[in-house]
Write the structure tokens for this entry.
Amino acid sequence: MAKIIGETILQVENLQTELHTNIGVQRPVDGVSLSLRQGETLGIVGESGCGKSMTALSILGVVPKPAAQVVGGRVMFNGQDLRTFSEQQMRRIRGGSISMVLQDPQTSLNPVYTIGGQVTEAIALHRDVPRRSLMSHAIDALRQVRVAAPEQRVKDYPHQMSGGMKQRVSGAIAISCDPHVLIADEPTTALDVTIQSQYLRLLREIQEKTGLSIIFITHDFGIIANMCDTVAVMYAGRVVESGPVRAIFDEPRHPYTRALLNSVPTMDRHVKRLYSIPGQPPALWDRPAGCWYRNRCPFAEPRCETQYPPAIAAKNTAGSNHVANCWKLEDSTWITPKS
């Protein structure tokens, strides 16, 4: 079944989140802008600590308070700015219209409640379902994510399930209320390769049947290639490149994106040592002037030390809406070297 992409359903504009710590104020999310259409899968990729998960939490307004606060930007969902919603209004959105699968099912599931109790809780909160029918809806949700013998599994506790099964239960809770948007925060991290493949196939099937829009957060470019339609590459709290997945893979324009792709091992090339990006990302409380990647970039030039580059449209690419924050893009003939 061919995927059908509709109109924009979620638009994040200049989102900013501050984190107040003993060493000062940090901005793990600093001006992030994203766009998601109905039926589309948007991948967010980058090194650990670049702000991927914090961006997702900021969209839903569930950052760890009081230390963290969303201080700027807009989150437009179906034409309404979620940042203007009260906490009571947001509770109806979270889990109902926008759901999230956390990366560690071991900590996202409550160990003292049964699987059925945790799935029915979400359904009772967000759907107009008679109380006597809640468990049958929970069983249907587990069956939808291919949990074997769901009639028995609803009576189990999380510790009685494998990591892969617990991840499926987390997915069942997320889709049980028929959300419009699903945020999947590295949901395959704890899974082995076989279960990972099954889980990704399951998400694609659900998306094709329901028109679900997905934000898929990962550090795995293999998953990005298989799952996503568009990609946003994050570095130090900002999106540094975004565009269609094929354009990002074929003609990456930001040196950081190319470095990430070079770090992925390939079967057709034998190397003595895997490539790694030199240096470290800047500390959130001590970002350098100019481009934040310049100290690790082999193409840095004098103005990179003083001016942060704006989003510049990439030229001569296979896809549209491909932009990157790099001064080199002012030269329309420049393409990041393949190696």
